[in-house]
Amino acid sequence: MKSAKNPVARDVSEIIRTMPGVNLTGNSTSGQRGNNRQIDIRGMGPENTLILIDGKPVSSRNSVRQGWRGERDTRGDTSWVPPEMIERIEVLRGPAAARYGNGAAGGVVNIITKKGSGEWHGSWDAYFNAPEHKEEGATKRTNFSLTGPLGDEFSFRLYGNLDKTQADAWDINQGHQSARAGTYATTLPAGARRGNQQRY
User: Fold this and answer.
1) Does residue 90 form part of some domain?
2) 189 within domain boundaries
């Protein structure tokens, strides 16, 4: 098991990418596109990497938008917890992850959040991404968090985020289309059958 303390980061993916053996990919095992922020352990794809927060599965990672051709696009799927609320991240691989079931064939990422304290703390941040090419959709994201005491025995934590990504243009790849044509010819020795010609 490997663990990482929380450095300064915009989202979970920026912490995850520093951990050995954990990759960020833009494709699922089915070949569908994403945004290079899907978590992949041992090259087995995001669908085989289980994400937990304090030991509980993250179901919101399945909330994805559909592209205009029906492909799955998972941009923004790592904004589950504000980075400043993360105590550490644990990564389990191989037999240690087997007890979590089929969805953990690649491994398990367990995000451990900080415990509440006797003091009030809060944060807010915003992020905007404007792609170089106008055909790609821009991304806007904002996160907030608030923690504080509830009497002498209890404390509470509240956090959330709003993520909005514009759709890519329907003809985003039109300029990359190509067409090929050519001929292929062979000849045979005299007396043999006539040479053939194929076109593709």
Assistant:
1) yes
2) no
Judge contact between 37 and 28, C-beta under 8 A: no
**Domain total in the chain:** 1
Single-letter code of the amino acid located at 45: G
pTM here?
0.59
CA 186 vs. chain centroid, Å, equals 50
Burial of 182: CB neighbours in 10 Å, binned 0-12, 13-18, 19+? exposed
pLDDT tens-digit series, residues 80-120: 777 878 888 888 887 677 777 777 878 888 889 888 777 88
The string of pLDDT tens digits covering residues 52-88 is: 888 888 865 555 555 555 555 554 456 677 787 888 8
- Domain of residue 154 covers 2-169
Count helices and strands (H / E) in the chain. 2, 14
Domain of residue 153, CATH code: 2.170.130.10
| 53 in Cβ contact with 118 (< 8 Å) | no
Task: Burial-class residue 61 by CB neighbours within 10 Å (0-12, 13-18, 19+).
Answer: middle
CA atoms of 141 and 34, how far apart (whole Å): 17
